[in-house]
Amino acid sequence: MRNLVFAIMFVSIAALAGCAGLNFSQMSPEAKEFHPKTIAVLPATIGEHESARDVVEAVVAKKLSESMWYGSVIDAAAVKKMITESKELGDNVQNYLQQVNTLGTSDAALTQKLRDGLQVDALFLTYVTSWEYGRMEGNKVAKVGLGIKLVDAATGVVVWKANHELVDEYLAVKPSLDRLSEKLMKRLMKEMPH
What is the pTM assigned to this prediction? Predict the structure, then answer.
């Protein structure tokens, strides 16, 4: 009987650990006072996962819109269209993403240019860290990983950043990476300030 109680306790603790927070989540002190009304989803940084680009950008914009936290969500497709119409805005977006991705810093002057060019209070950056089917410990798995940053467009402060990965085991029918990305974005947003 005692062994059964320990086994039940172990399974309960393991289940709770699996429901724990994100792999990484960091909020700045400014997050408490940051309540943007408009947000722009910048083009995703996808690395080697080109097939994820359109899906991830659409899922991010959809989930942000569904949250009803913002009066306006400018999706990545609209941002790309605006970039093609304005060389200055295109250069600013490209320089900003390059700076954030290589130096890890968000420049206040550059974010203010994006704020003015896109007419938004916040910028949303997305990084695809995994997007694949494979094997893990001998089991077939579907894997989707995202990293995100929420930036105050007026100050350049990264108000919140997080990353997480969802892994779904399967036997015969492959789970949809699209659906897995929606589930992941929903989970990330549970900790996102707004």
Answer: 0.86
